[in-house]
Amino acid sequence: MQLTVNGEPRTCDDGQTVEGLLTSIGLDPRKVAVERNREIVPKSTFATTVLAAGDVIEIVHFIGGG
Amino acid sequence: MTETTVPAAVADTFTVAGKTFSSRLLVGTGKYKDFEETARAIEVSGAEIVTVAVRRVNVSDPSQPMLVDYVSPKKYTYLPNTAGCFTADDAVRTLRLAREAGGWDLVKLEVLGDQKTLYPNMPETLKAAEALIRDGFKVMVYCSDDPIQAKMLEDMGCVAIMPLGSLIGSGHGVLNPVTIRLIKEQSSVPVLVDAGLGAASDAAVAMELGCDGVLMNTAIAGAKDPIAMARAMKLAVEAGRLSYLAGRMPKKMYADPSSPLAGLI
Questions:
Q1: Does residue A63 contact residue B65 with C-beta atoms inside 8 Å?
Q2: Could you tell me if A61 and B52 are in contact, meaning their C-beta atoms sit under 8 angstroms apart?
């Protein structure tokens, strides 16, 4: 199915969870925060939140800033 | 705290949102050459609170080094900011994500007015502060040096008031010491000069006005030798604070000899 991840189209398997998506990208789930269709996905639910076709996902982390 | 004795200044601490810190210098983590330099400059500055930005992960290259690997959130208090946000909605959204990423609620709110000046948009700042406080955040707020709006932010429940000394990244120092002083005198929460400092003397000026601390990024990262400037800023903040606590001599119109006049040959 098709998702939008950080503004870019991305294909993933049906039934994929947020945690599965992060792992498939190669990200450490502990170091990022995720928003799904403008709703925060709590870290504790990464493994149980199942993605749906058309979801708009934002994955953010801390970078240097003033 | 005894404000009149010099030795007390050694243990002079500042408390924000119930957490006590011994360094009054807060630093940003942006604009450094690389993460090694960031880490070294922060270490030398003695800062305990560091500001960080929230941005999209580069999903096409997830192996890129991350700030958290160099500046440990276990060692430093991360203060997520909303740099780059121009509306209250964007700022609130950003900090909600930051809270989820880091798991803490002490944040730096800044809502900017335009790209050219990065001057605070105060109506949006007030709106965002209200929403964040309602949502349980502890808000340190970047604001204009307007005592009336600073008071509104304090009354609303912001945990620190952070007026700009001059425009972000401009290095002009404290352009309006009178309004900074007015804000400090009226506030019962910490007041920190945020933005615009360029040299160690600027940091000392802010501290001599009685401010509880200063927050800077470009002044250190943009120096020819950021590590040396980090140390200069650490010393300047301490010197300025001590000078404030010591109580400066009054200014006089005319000379006053330092040597006694009695016994002149």
A1: no
A2: no
Residues of B in contact with A32 (CB under 8 A): 57, 101
Question: Which regions in chain B score pLDDT beneath 70?
Answer: 1-10
* Residues in contact with A13: Cβ distance below 8 Å, sequence separation at least 6, in sequence order: A1, A20
Q: Specify the pLDDT at position B4.
A: 53
Tell me which chain A residues have a C-beta less than 8 angstroms from the C-beta of B41. none
A 9-48 residues inside an 8 A Cβ radius of B = 10, 25-27, 31-35, 38, 40-43
Q: Which residues of chain A have pLDDT under 70?
A: none
Instruction: Please indicate if any CB of chain B lies within 8 Å of the CB of A63.
Output: yes
Q: Residue B190 and residue B160: Cα distance in Å, rounded? A: 5
| ipTM of the shown complex | 0.93
Contact B78/A62, CB-based, under 8 Å? yes
How far apart are the C-alpha atoms of B42 and B217, rounded to whole Å?
Answer: 10
Residue of chain B whose Cα is closest to the Cα of A40: B97
The set of catalytic residues of B is 108
Please state whether beta strands A39-41 and A33-36 pair in parallel, antiparallel, or not at all (unpaired): antiparallel
In sequence order, what E strands does B25-167 have?
25-28, 49-56, 77-80, 106-109, 138-143, 160-163
- How high is the pLDDT of residue B102? 85
Nearest-Cα residue of chain A relative to residue B195: A66
Amino acid at A15: G
pTM assigned to the model: 0.90
